Amino acid sequence: MLTPLNRRRMLRLAARATGAAAVASLPIFAEVGRGDGTKATTFKYAICNETFGDWPLEKAFRFAAECGYRGIEIAPFTIARNVVEIDATRRKEIRKLAERAGLEVVGLHWLLAKTEGYHLTTDDADVRRRTAGYLGKLAQFCADLGGRMMVLGSPQQRNLATGVTKAEGMKRAAEVLREVVPVLEKTGVTMAIEPLGPAETNFINTAADGVELAKLVDSPRCRLHLDCKAMVTEPTPIPEVIRKYHHWCVHFHANDPNRRGPGFGKLDFVPIFQALRDVDYRGWVSVEVFDYSPGVERLARESIEYMRKCEGRLLAK
């Protein structure tokens, strides 16, 4: 009989061999005991590294692990403005620092932040080609760190210019992402399209939009990312969005509409986590914040404490 560990390795090898399995299809839950002697699963939590500001990576990774996080999500601009500036030695160093702290590099987000000359929906075909090439370089960087996921947000680099229709934007963005697919397949990295609210961008505002674009790309390496702050702008409640699009969702950001961490506002995560458990979500739950005023330590520590309390209420049922 296969042990859980061997079974996990077998599934990962099979996914790489076929190139058809998305990251979230691999079990990354931890098992915990219930009072009745049965076992339940608990999410694995990650946190985005820009939360720690100018902290040295070693200090940030160590503190994240001390708080209970098991993964770290990297914003490339915190390492260098352009990913090509990060040499092989530095990439190995970052990966080792994470491993030494007991963390797994989940992947990347803020892919095009702080860059210049890249755009998904521009009418300039040369810019779109350069954008595809740069996303491919990011995929290699992600893989070099041990990551398997890239969250495609970058609202400023996807906004539709005046006069460009949504359909044309979809066509152009899909062309860019299709060019990246061979690199994604080679590296084993999955691109997760992130819907964002209308206050942030005028393109890909709903989960339905994200799925529409993913379908146009037509690759198992292009899927959907869901973010709580963004989902509150949809007319459909967050749990219903999760249940409707869970087959596409491979990554999840936990935050409050007030741009702080989970538990720092009014958003109740119990029904959100219930929906994730109901659909057997197998991806990471990663904390991403934008308002750092409560302080780094509070944001990191209290976010995971709150999420564990919410999950504890579900496990107690």
Question: What does this protein structure show overall?
Answer:
The protein has 317 residues and is α/β, with parallel strands linked by helices. It has a single domain, classed as Divalent-metal-dependent TIM barrel enzymes (TIM Barrel, Alpha-Beta Barrel). It is 43% helix and 14% strand. The strands form two sheets. The chain has an eight-stranded parallel beta barrel, surrounded by six helices. It has a two-stranded antiparallel sheet with strand order 1-2. β3, α2 and β4 (71-74) form a beta-alpha-beta unit. The protein starts with a helix and ends with a helix. Mean pLDDT is 90; it is low at 1-40.
Summary of the model, kept short:
This protein has 317 residues and is α/β, with parallel strands linked by helices. It has helices spanning 4-18, 57-67, 88-101, 125-144, 166-187, 207-217, 228-231, 238-245, 269-278, 296-315, and strands at residues 30-33, 39-42, 45-48, 71-74, 104-108, 149-152, 190-193, 222-227, 249-254, 285-287.
